[in-house]
User: Fold these one by one.
Assistant:
Number 1:
Amino acid sequence: MFKSIKPSISSTSLSTPLLSSATTTTSSDSDETPTNSNRFQDIPQPLPNTPTTSYKSLAVLSVHAGTVSSLAVSGEFLLSASQGKDIIVWQQPDLRIFAKFGHGGGGAVKALVTLGNKVFTAHQDSRVRVWRISRSSENVFKLVDTLPTTKDYLGNCLLQKNYVQTRRHHRRLWIEHADSISCLAFRNGLIYSGSWDKTLKVWRIGDLKCLESIKAHDDAINGLVASKGVVFSASADGKIKVWGLANRSHSLMGILEGHRDASFNAVVVSEDGRWVYGGGSDGYLMGWKGNAGFDSWRLVCEVSGHKMAVLCMCLRGDILCSGSADKSVGVWKRELGGGVFRIGVIRGHEGPIKCLQVSPNSVGGGFMLYSGSLDKSLRVWWVPKYDDKTGDISTVLSTGKSSNVLC
């Protein structure tokens, strides 16, 4: 049993309850660019920015020992992971600590995703760890496996052909990552892990077996997202690659090029998989529209969004949020043609914004936004609905009265 831990919270309590709805934040060695990958034309000019609004945080949670590196929403729970190895489960709407675990795992936590009663965490020591709620106590999470599993390792270690060259004088099994795992995604019974070792690995959730290891990029993989059977990987090599699943293996379907000498740190995709947005180290937001076969893409958005690097992004319907090293979060409205324009700016963190997550449920006409930072804090914001007719960020609260966001 975990003892009750009282977090450091500054601000008023959240008065509007969130509804429970389970969600989570995502072998072919081909590295050739398809002839129809991304030849862009007819790029629309970005719309002028509307007057922006600043927000005040509803809560500031300062409990983590290190940088808040990853966030996930699962039903009534919010999970936050830290470079200090700790993972905290917060119960909404009052944001009390439900459980705290992860100290036994090796290396800083870089990413996490939730699936049912399991939590998958990616670590700096190049391992993925699997945690499950204890049967004896619902607020205790136990480590149940590590990827690659012992069974998978023993099944591969005896054959020399299963070893690959990772760097000079170093060899590893193909099922092992050779460097820090930076991102995770899941889709249709598969877990995907992206690493600084430039590879994308595919794991089967049922038996946690590694199915594929793809030499995906020429530099570190920083972001992953999966949708409609397609996986998008964002890399420090300045490319977002599109991977499709066919005949039980993944193949390259397209390459989305960023700016020269700029890396992609984050990638998000719309629910239908047709719109993809990437955040770059030069502060730009770029977006593409794909065709029905996901094998042809057109650039539709190219906006200078931040003064410093974009480190994270999240998408909820037609609202895109971008977190930056400039310590701000940009709130953007997505247009029908795929372009975006800024409708708000969130400030308050004392360090770069490392991760963002949104609640899938509407609250008072808007939604809850969670941000984690290098300042070791987790902040909670309420983002109101954008009024397309007036161009204002306003909403009607439960009292029935119109209210603008506090500045």
Number 2:
Amino acid sequence: MSSNTRIVSATPEQVWEVLSDGWLYPLWVVGASRMREVDDSWPEPGSRLHHSVGSWPLLLDDETEVLEAVPGARMKLRAHGWPAGAAEVTIHLVAHASGTEVTIEEVATHGPGALVPKPLQDPVLGWRNTETLRRLAYLVERRQQRV
């Protein structure tokens, strides 16, 4: 399992505000390029984001489903991204003296990506999630500057 952590200069509730706005997903998730629809119940378990991955003209429509949500603390997702397959992604939020410690854990669970040995998966997922956390931090922190 790939695991990445970053301190975000905001409260867990402020980070959760961004996570719970499904329309912001492509702004912080590496690979997601546009939103097509967000279920009205997002981020309740079972709700889905309908997004596209890739770059035009090679866009694939896919979705991400909430498996578990604890507001201000944790969100577990099943992210689909064909042709690679699917992954389970858990985002942990923990209050920290400097704001919020955000950890993303990801493991490929279905499709061709799951067949890649873990020692080869982890560096790629680690790179991707380092950038994902950087984007999330920028988005959350810039929102707080405007308030």
